[in-house]
Amino acid sequence: MKTISIICQKGGVGKTTTVVNIASVFSKLGYKTLIIDLDPQGNVSTYLNYDKMSENHTDSIDLLEKKESIQPGQISENLDILSSNTEIAKFNEEKIVGGSKLQQAFRHIKFKEYQIILIDTPPTMSSLVQEALAVSDYYLIPAKPEFLAVEGVAQAMEFAKKTISTIQNSNPIFLGVLLNQIDRRRSSYLDFVSELEYLLADKLLTSKISQTAEIADGPFYAKTVVDYKDESKSKVEYFDLANEILKKVGLNEEVTEFSDNRY
C-alpha cells in the first residue's frame, strides 16, 4: 500500500482536482484506491457527487476520532472515499501532542485491501496537513505556473520538513511539484518552467496539466478524465501523470500496457 498526500497552502492550484482525477485513473487501471478527504470544504465529495453527510458510511472524522469500525463509501469499481465536512475543522488547530491521531488510527485499522491511498488536505499549513503527512509514504505539491507560486512551493516544502522532523515515525518522500493549469501560449511560461527546473531539478514532475475547459467543467458534471474521449488532451495528460507517479512509488510493474492501451 502506498499513501500519498497532496498538499499546498495556497488555494486554487488544483489540489482537489488532482486528487480526484489521478484517483479515478488509478482505479481505472485496476488499483484499489481510497481517497481520504481532510479538507473541511469537502470538495472531493462535491466533485464526485457523493453525499458528504451520508449516514450509511463513515467519514474521515470517524477516522480521526478513532472509531472502531470504518466503512468507506464507494464511488465506483476500485474507488472508495472517506469523505469530509465542516465538522472536521475542529481538528485543524489542534497541536499533535502524544502522537498523530491518524497514525494511531492506521495502526488500528488496516487498509490492506487498498493499493493506493490519496489524501486531500486543506489549503493551509495546519494540524490536518500534519496528520496527513504523518501517515504518508509520499507527498506531492501542485502549483500554478506563476511567479508567486515559487514562494508557495518553498513554504509548503519547509512546512513538510518541519512536520517530518517533529512527528515520530513520519518520513514521507517528496514526490515533487506538479504544474497545473498551464498555458503554453503565455510568453512567460518557458521562463517560469526553466526557473523551476533550476530550483527543483528532478523534483519538478515531467508531466504537466494544461488549463482546459474539460477540467474546469468536470466538477459541474461530476466527470473525471476517465469519462472523456480517448483523444482528450486532459485524459492523456492525467494518464501520463498517473504513470509517472506509479513509477516513482514503485507500482508501475503491475501495469502491463500503459501507453498504447491505457484506456
Features of this protein?
263 residues, alpha/beta, Rossmann fold, 8-stranded mixed beta sheet, 9 helices, 17% strand, disordered C terminus
Describe the overall structure.
With 263 residues, this protein is of the alpha/beta class. The protein has one domain: Rossmann fold (3-Layer(aba) Sandwich). It has nine helices and eight strands. An eight-stranded mixed sheet has the order 3-4-2-5-1-6-7-8, with helices on both faces. Strand 7 (173-182), helix 7 and strand 8 (204-210) form a beta-alpha-beta unit. Helix 1 (15-28) packs across helix 9 (233-249). The longest helix has 18 residues, at 149-166. The chain is globular, with a radius of gyration of 17 Å. Mean pLDDT is 87; it is low at 254-263.
Give me the secondary-structure topology.
Elements: E1 2-6, H1 15-28, E2 33-37, H2 43-47, H3 60-64, E3 73-76, E4 79-82, H4 101-108, E5 116-120, H5 127-134, E6 138-143, H6 149-166, E7 173-182, H7 189-200, E8 204-210, H8 213-221, H9 233-249
Parallel strand pairs: 1-5, 1-6, 2-4, 2-5, 6-7, 7-8
Antiparallel strand pairs: 3-4
Helix pairs in contact: 1-9
User: Residue share in helices?
Assistant: 25-40%
Shape: globular
Contiguous uncertain segments of 5+ residues: 254-263
Please give the radius of gyration in angstroms. Answer: 17 Å
- Overall mean pLDDT stands at 87
* CATH T-level fold name: Rossmann fold
The N- to C-terminal Cα distance equals: 23 Å
Can you tell me the number of structural domains?
1
Order of helices and strands: EHEHHEEHEHEHEHEHH
CATH architectural type: 3-Layer(aba) Sandwich
Estimated structural class: alpha/beta
Q: How many distinct beta strands?
A: 8
| Tally of contiguous helical segments | 9
- CATH C-level category: Alpha Beta
Described by strand count, sense and barrel closure, the largest sheet is:
8 strands, mixed
Q: Say which CATH homologous superfamily is assigned.
A: P-loop containing nucleotide triphosphate hydrolases
Which quaternary structure do these chains form?
Answer: single chain
- Biggest sheet strand order reads 3-4-2-5-1-6-7-8
Strand content: 15-25%
